[in-house]
Predict the structure of Secreted protein.
Amino acid sequence: MSMRRTTKARGGLVALTVVAGLTLGVAGCGGGGDDEKPHASSSASKDRRSGPSTQNGQSDTPLAELRGPDGLLLAITSAERDAGGFVTVSGDMKNDGSKTVNVPAQLSGNETEIIRNGRSLGGATLVDSKGKKRYYVLRDTDGRPLTTTNFPALKAGESLPVFLQFPAPPTDTSEVTFQLPMFAAAPLTISG
């Protein structure tokens, strides 16, 4: 009897996990009903069949542009606070140079747990000067950074949509400084 109950309990737990995963997947894929056409940069991600798509509601004018090594340019198009207590920063990493460039490993930061998960933007931070706090990129339960990972080599003129997720500063804080290793820092205004 005990063996049968254990098997039933495990089967129920597996079914519950599958249902929860499917529910989250469907909820994450909701379109929100916007009829807005995708931006030109989203077509680059479709050609590669990987990486995140750009978010609806992003403006064509970046909130900030950060210059990095070898002609890399990070154009941040949104910094949005959500009800869950997170800030998602989205934009495009572009090769503004004339040669093919590999995204530097230093952008992952220097934490062993993040480095172990491949190249990412895990070294980025948001700095709240008013509250005197620094916010690091969030990680999942396996230590993977909640940011774009495993960058391909970028050809001259090519861009790749990127995202980073941070814990949200207090609701009365909307001005922060975005920092990424090897790039210039830039002030950002958080919306939402």
In short: The longest strand covers residues 72-81. Strands lie at 64-67, 72-81, 86-95, 125-128, 133-136, 159-167, 175-179, 186-189.
